[in-house]
Structures are given as structure tokens and as C-alpha cells.
């Protein structure tokens, strides 16, 4: 798939700063931010709601059909906590954000997550589930693990992506 601009996936356990980082990247690069969680709600790309986990049940087929169109021209930053459902060909860079348990716990508490959801997400982060899944789903050279504990980390990550994008443009045009 040849695109005039790359697509970037920003993934990680809920609370690691995906949306904030994606917004910062969009600001410094001019790429468009696609918040998949919001897209799922807006376009009804789900099969209902699971009360106990406080989340929608994703309709993967509907989501993939919707995103295929959005991503085909490139220039998108896709922000989602799951990465293995997306075709490898869609992304030129996969960022896995990591946060220490104290930062993660504080962020989830502020969001009002229930205990079960918090426990599950804390365990997921400690066990590096999203990072391992990204490594299993994408070429190793495009998967980058980044710390995301502070605003400084997030700003630094956005700057790194801007540098990466500048190099990508030179190498792909």
C-alpha cells in the first residue's frame, strides 16, 4: 500500500496516555488523530455494552471496514488499546506506551474506573500484554516502546515522532 503519509498506531493499556500523546503528535506533525474508542461510539461499531467491564463490545468487522477507508490515504494517528485486530499493512509505526503502576492507577482512579476494570488493566500493564501483542502482530522494526509517565514523557514522545516523520518523508518521496 503506497501512501503519501504514514499511518501510526498509538497503543497501550488504558490509562497510559494514548489519547493525550496522539493529540500532541497530531499538533506537532499535522497528521489526523483517529480516536478509535470515540469512533466506535459515534458510528455504533459495537454489539452492545458490558456493564461489568464498563465497555462496549466491539464489532471488529464494522470497525475494520470503517477504518480501511479512513486509513487508505495515510496521515493518520490511530489511538486504541488493542492492536492485534488491525492488518499489519495499515501501519508504518506502532508506538506502545508504558506507564508505571502509580501513574496508571492515578489516571484510572480519576476516570472513575471500577475496581475490576482497574485490577485487570493494572495486571495487563504489569504483564506487558499490549507490548507482547504488538511484537507478535507487527514487524519488530516498527514497534517502539515508549515511557508515558509524565507530560514531559508525552511531549518528548511527540517530538520523537515528528523527527521520525521528517525522516519518513525524506525516505518515501
Question: What characteristics describe this protein?
Answer:
kinase; 173 residues; transferase; single chain; 5-stranded parallel beta sheet; 49% helix; globular; rRNA processing; AMP kinase activity; alpha/beta
Describe what you observe in this structure.
The protein has 173 residues and is an alpha/beta fold. It is 49% helix and 18% strand. The chain is globular. The mean pLDDT is 93. The protein has one domain (8-34, 75-171): P-loop containing nucleotide triphosphate hydrolases (Rossmann fold). Helix 1 (18-29) packs across helix 7. A hairpin with a 4-residue loop joins strand 3 (46-50) and strand 4. It has helices spanning 18-29, 36-42, 60-71, 101-111, 115-126, 129-137, 151-171; strands at residues 8-11, 32-35, 46-50, 55-58, 76-79, 93-98, 143-147. The strands form 2 sheets. Strands 2-5-1-6-7 form a 5-stranded parallel sheet, sandwiched between helices. A two-stranded antiparallel sheet has the order 3-4.
Give a short summary of the structure.
With 173 residues, the protein is α/β, with parallel strands linked by helices. Helix content is 49%, strand content 18%. It contains seven helices and seven strands; from the N terminus they run βαβαββαββαααβα.
